[in-house]
Amino acid sequence: MHPNQDNVVPFGSNYPVSGLPPQNIEAEEAILGGIMLDPEAMTRVSDRLSVEAFYISAHKDIYQAAVRFLTLGGWGFLKYPMICLC
Asked: What is the pLDDT of residue 7?
């Protein structure tokens, strides 16, 4: 189990999943990783992807921080954006 999955039910558990929203943790990680590797990716996804699309609360926080950086004028003022997000 991923260490940040404080609000995720493990596969195969006896937890009733009827009220569980759709989720794809690997996709969340891939999106955030892509943004960290290529900060310009935020300009391509920010109009399609909202903070609420993330299931893991830590992923929401990281994406929200990236959105804030974008609204401040992009990543140009940061030499190492990945350090600021982590």
From this structure: 55
User: What region does 12 belong to: left with phi over 0, alpha with psi -120 to 50, or beta?
Assistant: left
What angle is formed at CA 23 by the lines to CA 13 and CA 83, rounded to 5 degrees? 110
Q: 55 is in which domain, residue-wise?
A: 25-85
Residues 13-71 have pLDDT tens digits of: 555 556 667 789 999 999 999 998 887 888 899 899 999 999 999 999 999 998 988 88
> Which CA distances in Å does 44 have to 8, 39, 41?
28, 10, 5
Q: Quote the pTM value.
A: 0.65
Count of domains for the chain: 1
In a domain, 71, yes or no: yes
Would you say residue 4 lies in a domain?
A: no
54 within some domain: yes
